[in-house]
Amino acid sequence: MVVGTGNPYTVRVLGNFLNVAQGTNGTLRADTTGQPFTVDNPSILQWFNTSAFTLPPTGQFGDSGRNIIIGPTTFVFNMSMSKSFQMKDNMGLEVRADASNIFNTPQFTSIDTTVNSPTYGQVIGVGAQRRISLSLRYRF
After folding, report:
1. 135 φ/ψ angles, rounded to the nearest 5 degrees
2. From CA 14, how far away is CA 56, in angstroms rounded?
3. Domain count along the chain
4. Three-state DSSP class for 110?
5. CA dist., res. 47 & res. 37, Å (int)
6. Rg from Cα positions in the chain
7. pTM, to two decimals
8. What domain range includes position 80?
9. Which of 6, 86, 89, 110 would give a disulfide with 71, using CB separation of 3.0 to 4.6 Å?
């Protein structure tokens, strides 16, 4: 079983041409409004309080901190089973099944933290679903 804490995210703004001299496109930070960043029950449609951030005035840097939003945690349960059958002398047969994310829980991988994006505040990435592989090995 693997349980991971959420990745940190920085709320940012995609700047226009006037802001190019201030940094690389997409690295400008948003302004904070003073409201709390977190919500009581985060969902895939609103992971954090989107009204806590606004666009900074043109030509100015935003005042929000770096990595202040914590993303979704992960819970992955992997399992493996095998059975060996002894045949003649040195010969044998092994049957094996490997499964990752056996309970098929969604693994949210990223959230949109760009203030002027249509999916701002939403979960926009999901990791791998359940995967099962079967193998058969004959030893001689």
Report:
1. -140, 150
2. 11
3. 1
4. strand
5. 10
6. 24
7. 0.71
8. 2-139
9. 6
